[in-house]
Amino acid sequence: MSDVNPSTPDPAGAFRDLFRDTYDDLLLFVERRTHPAVAEDVVADVFLVAWRRFADVPVPRDEARAWLFTVAYHTMRNTRRSDHRQQSLALRILREPDTVARAESDQVAARLDLVQAWKHLSPDDQQVLTLTVFEDLTGPQAAKVLGVTRATFSVRLMRARRRLRRHLGRPAQIPSTTSAAARIAETGVSA
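Structure for RNA polymerase sigma-70 factor (ECF subfamily), as requested:
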């Protein structure tokens, strides 16, 4: 392994060398700690962080490798926390007091519709809605949490609300083998 200086005149080449020299070790490190189906996604996230913070990557290759392992560890921990929060939120929604639910059948139906609609949302849509509704963050605060601009967050929030409303208006359906063309026509999204 050769050492890489992040201040080299060719940072892209130095990054390629770092990637080539550490990818396999990093992938094995992640696969030992998480499900193999998500390991490559975690490694991709780690190298994205490394690219964005390339000046912070230590110069000796062994130290750079340890730095990447640290980023991977924190990435996996954050992912697990996020998954746990989403599961806890879903359970909290389902565990609302039964006495009120029994007394008001309309409320039960609405709650079940919300749970079903929530399941149809992407994790990104769930996250945007959770930050504003459950965490009670303002738009600028939520944008900062996600590391995006206020305008980008506003667009994401608007789209997430639109998709949630669309799913709330849809009756519960049994999954079918709808053609891609029919799904595109129904949602207005291109493939």
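Residues 172-191 have pLDDT under 50 and may be disordered.
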